[in-house]
Design a protein that fits this description.
By secondary structure, the protein is α+β, with helices and mostly antiparallel strands. It has a single domain, classed as Zinc finger, CHC2-typedomain (DNA Primase, Chain A), CATH 3.90.580. 52% of the residues lie in helices and 14% in strands. Helix 1 crosses helix 4 and helix 3 packs across helix 4. The chain is globular, with a radius of gyration of 16 Å. The mean pLDDT is 80.
């Protein structure tokens, strides 16, 4: 099923759907920051601390550490369950859903998050080593 989710994300990204999950959550006053958006975090309320990527289906708050992908955001912000959030995104992408394995998807998402943290850490280490 995670392949289906990746297919949905690819279709949505190709359609420049990246603002809609967050706009639907009424993130008033979001600002473009290069290829990303900065908005007030709906979870902790801190202004300009919610980072929403325009290139990947992810978000992250630098204060309360809320983060994840569009599925997580729709579940937390709109109170949808996994299936409802997935159906919402599939409909926007024009994709018909089959069966799904939420546990397998969650495991891949955890792996992705760990790799993202490692990448940021090593990039910061590289940047600080080249500056010194």
């Amino acid at each position: 099923m995670s392949t289906d989710i990746q297919h949905i994300y690819c279709r949505l990204l190709a359609r420049n759907y990246t603002v809609e999950p967050f706009a639907e959550a009424r993130l008033d006053g979001y600002k473009r920051a290069g290829r990303d958006l900065l908005a007030d975090c709906p979870f902790c309320g801190k202004p300009d601390h919610l980072y929403c990527s325009l290139d990947k289906p992810v978000y992250h708050c630098f204060v309360c550490k809320a983060g994840g992908d569009w599925l997580d955001f729709l579940q937390k912000q709109r109170g949808l369950n996994f299936r409802e959030a997935l159906q919402h995104l599939a409909q926007a992408a024009g994709v018909r859903l089959g069966g799904f394995d939420e546990a397998a998807y969650r495991q891949k998402a955890r792996t992705r998050d760990i790799l993202d943290v490692a990448q940021r850490f090593f990039s910061a280490q590289f940047d600080s080593a080249t500056v010194a």
